[in-house]
Amino acid sequence: MTNHEKHILLWDELARTGRKNKYLTFSGLFPEESAIMSCWACEECDADCDVCPIDWGEHLYCSDDEWDGLYDLWSSAKTKNKRKLLAAQIRDLPWRTK
Questions:
Q1: In this structure, what DSSP letter does residue 88 have?
Q2: What is the rounded distance in angstroms from the CA atom of residue 63 to the CA atom of residue 66?
Q3: 26 contacts: CB under 8 Å, gap ≥ 6
Q4: Considering the entire predicted model, what is its pTM?
């Protein structure tokens, strides 16, 4: 399974459940594996945000100084429904190939 496929699996589960803890979801799905920051995109690029395989759109990175990157919004979402919606958006972001 590729890092992209694992990324989709992780974020699909978060979109389905609305769970707030990505790390618990990661360890449940991939009990024998590890990835930098429990992120398959970070694993793909050795946590070099400048070459992240995810196209974050107008925000160059998953997180930014103003805390309004898509990952930031998911991480700070107060409701399960909002987390589900944002997780689905993260799951569906374009993945750049090398």
A1: H
A2: 8
A3: 10, 35, 38
A4: 0.92
Sign for the CA dihedral angle at 23, 16, 18, 55 comes to: positive
Per-residue exposure over 59-90, b if at least 16 CB sit within 10 Å of its own CB, e if not = eeebbeeeeebbbbbbeebeeeeebbebbeeb
Q: The tokens of 78 are what? A: 């107060």
**Contacts of residue 76, Cβ cutoff 8 Å, sequence gap at least 6:** 67
Q: C-alpha distances in angstroms, 65 versus 32, 59, 62, 72, 90?
A: 33, 10, 11, 10, 19
- 1-11 pLDDT tens trace: 999 999 999 99
pLDDT digits (tens, 9 = 90+) for 19-66: 999 999 999 999 999 999 999 999 999 999 889 999 988 777 777 666
Rg for the chain, CA atoms, rounded:
13
